[in-house]
Amino acid sequence: MSKSAASGPSQRMLRVGEQVRHALSEVLQRGEIIDPLIETTVISISEVRMSPDLKIATAFVSPLGAKDPDAVVEALNKHAKFVRGRISHALRQMRSIPEARFRLDTSYDNFAKINELLKSPEVARDLGDDDEKDE
Fold first, then answer.
1. Could you tell me if 93 and 54 lie in one domain?
2. Higher pLDDT, 119 or 33
3. Do 57 and 100 reside in the same domain of the chain?
4. Which of 23, 64, 109, 133 is the most exposed place for a label (fewest CB within 10 A)?
């Protein structure tokens, strides 16, 4: 395992990822992508992870209220080259404009599952036992 993979993303990767996230959000807000599915869906970009060489930007998106979130992500990936051209102005300080890839963000679903587990009677009972032992 390389040093960068073991220690997580570098400050530069995080900074560029945030710049790309803002640029992508602006493109979506302005409605520049001509696709009925994308135009009628509110899309939230929670995070953009950059590859170590800054050539690939993976955007984690949440299509809010979409009946088929996977179809929205597929539509975004279909328009990825167009999006890359539209974000190039906002990222003109970069040596090369990263290739955009879109993935469905499941972190909110994971949070909801963990929250439900923590609220379940079995876990609440177990947590209550620990509190009594500490006293």
1. yes
2. 33
3. yes
4. 133
The residue assigned the tokens 């620990």 is: 130
Asked if 99 contacts 82 with a C-beta cutoff of 8 angstroms, the reply is no
Give the tokens for residue 104.
Answer: 């469905």
Q: Which domain holds residue 22?
A: 3-104
CATH of the domain at 72: 3.30.300.20
- Give the tens place of pLDDT for each residue, 48-79: 999 999 999 999 999 988 899 999 999 999 99
Q: Where are the beta strands (DSSP E) in 1-135?
A: 42-50, 56-64, 99-104
Q: Which helix (H) or strand (E) holds 83?
A: helix 80-87
Helices marked H in the chain: 3-7, 11-30, 36-39, 69-78, 80-87, 107-119, 121-134
User: Binning pLDDT at 50, 70 and 90, where does residue 121 land?
Assistant: confident
Task: Enter the pTM of the model.
Answer: 0.77
